[in-house]
Amino acid sequence: MTTTNASQSLTVRCQCGSVTYPLPRATPLSLYHCHCTECQKQSSSAFGTSAIFPADDIFPLSAELEAKVKKYTRDTDRGDTMDCYFCTGCGSRLFHRIIDKDGTPRPNVSVKAGCVEGLKWSGGRHIFVRSAVMDIPDGWETYDTVPPSS
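The chain above was modelled as a monomer; its predicted structure follows.
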């Protein structure tokens, strides 16, 4: 789990600065470095990093935020869907949320960590390392897919 100073606030900001919103808590529930092929494509890199927050911190979207983002929906490998939100100006992916097969949104949201100002990056877990395109140092917390009960 990542940690930040309790008095330090976190702000999500896209690349062009058009989308900016505060997060109501200074510490995410967890931090994941995802090596799945979807995150490799989305991040145009070896992995994508997400800070996990309760969905209630963001949803329902404010009218101001909703006016500045678009949603792309894709299927997941478990048969659910993922709603992926990005800035309409610069295209930066900002956050995503999984929707279960029965249409129920998951209770957590994944905020793209590179857009979170003030985030401490220590303690992240590497997931979907079965698709990793880089060596992950010994001793780092890794999972072939996701951690148990995720």
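Confidence is low (pLDDT under 50) at residues 1-6.
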